[in-house]
Amino acid sequence: MPTKIEWAQESWNPITGCDPISPACRNCYAKPMAYRLRGRCGYHVDDPFSITMHPDKMDVPRKWKTPRRVFVVSMGDLFHANVPIDYRDRIMDVIRDTPRHTFLLLTKRPQRMADAFTRRPVPDNCWIGVTVEDQQRADERLPILRKIDAPVRFVSVEPLLEGVDLALAPDDRIGWIIAGAETSPWKNRARYMDLAWAVSVRDQCQRVNIPFLFKKDSEGKRELDGRMWDEYPMVSR
Length: 237
Description:
The mean pLDDT is 94. The longest helix is centred in the C-terminal third of the chain and has 14 residues, at 195-208. The strands form 3 sheets. A 7-stranded parallel beta sheet has the order 1-4-5-6-7-8-9. The protein has a two-stranded antiparallel ribbon with strand order 2-3. It has a two-stranded antiparallel sheet with strand order 10-11. It has one domain (10-228). 26% of the residues lie in helices and 17% in strands. It is of the alpha/beta class.
């Protein structure tokens, strides 16, 4: 379905559900959405945010005729341990079979993603990314991401909870950075993002010529230093 996420045109959720794994998960936007749908649309009554397969959504991208940038499993984590391998393989088959679209996979479980792509290569129309909300997660997750062979490796620095050094280099294997403040489904619960943290991430990208996209600040504004930052990787395939 069309999405309000700035960096994607569609979201596709053949799987939903997840478990908290790091500080970014505290105000998860997907969990309350799942609870609003409990008992409906394939969501469990007792535990609507448990890992749930939605096979009726599996072939949705095949029906889209015009090329789209698609966020895969925006309501969960494709690389959660409870996602069956054969079901994830079916998702990857759909991605390979629809090369007109670009699919974006984002995880907080990069080691499981790396393990999955030792079995099968990343499709040519698939970008892979990790969430990095603080320095600890940057230090843990980015080295794993850099080792995976993919057309584009990207980092979502959202929610940006502190200043972060991404250790970017001119020849970096990371090709795109997204940054922004936390969005919370509960009023007044979103944690504050200091604009200096976002400026630092932007400056790190500019120093090594990596595209940068700024989603929004803690007041919901998309401008940073007086302008919009909507840069994307240039990929030929």
